[in-house]
Amino acid sequence: PFARYADGATLRTALAERNIVSLALTPNPEAAPLDSIVPPSRVALWLGTEGPGLSAATLAGCDAQLAIPMH
Fold first, then answer.
1. Which residues, 6+ apart, have CB-to-CB distance to 42 below 8 Å?
2. Which of 13, 40, 59, 70 is deepest in the core (most CB within 10 A)?
3. Cα angle at 50 between 8 and 68, to 5 degrees?
């Protein structure tokens, strides 16, 4: 599905109302590795741009922050 919202906070609220878990990808080494979780059945994956990534407010508003392990 595809939808547009005025801002991330409104989108996160709409997802939560529909029992959709918001997972944010981040290069932050403190984040849990992506392969360390069991994916929920309903998930929205938040991806940022290369370099700056997602804003601090977006990361804070998501249910979990995950990192892709670099080997």
1. 18, 19, 20, 21
2. 59
3. 90
pLDDT in tens, 11-69: 999 999 999 999 999 988 899 999 999 989 999 999 988 888 899 999 999 999 999 88
Torsion sign (Cα): 56, 60, 63, 65:
positive
Q: Is 30 left (phi over 0), alpha (psi -120 to 50) or beta?
A: alpha
> The dihedral of CA 54, 5, 14, 10: what is its sign?
positive
Residue 15 buriedness (CB in 10 A; 0-12 / 13-18 / 19+): buried
Q: Which helix (H) or strand (E) holds 12?
A: helix 8-17
Instruction: Read off the tokens for 19.
Output: 């029992």
- What do you get for the CA distance between the two ends of the chain, in Å? 33
